[in-house]
Design goal:
By secondary structure, the chain is α+β, with helices and mostly antiparallel strands. It has a domain of 47 residues. A two-stranded antiparallel sheet has the order 1-2. A hairpin with a 2-residue loop joins strand 3 and strand 4. The protein is elongated. The N and C termini lie far apart (65 Å).
């Protein structure tokens, strides 16, 4: 395998890495609850997508009751 004949300068390495920057994610407003979410995804706060309920979001109290109910059964 070939080896580099000369060392690359710091500037050359940094110029190569200029395209490695992090891109800002685009956010959309949920029409149901108004919170920000990723576009084309289910809202994590209300569980709606395109005006339809896709998943049921439980509150902490509801999750706790569901766990207790599961343990008893």
């Amino acid at each position: 395998m070939p080896n580099p004949k000369r060392r690359h300068s710091k500037q050359r390495g940094r110029l190569r890495r200029t395209h490695y920057k992090v891109k800002v994610k685009s956010l959309a407003k949920c029409p149901q609850c108004g919170k920000t979410k990723l576009p084309h995804r289910i809202c994590l706060f209300c569980g709606y997508y395109k005006g339809k309920a896709v998943i049921e979001i439980l509150t902490k109290d509801q999750k706790k009751k569901a766990r207790e109910k599961k343990r008893k059964a």
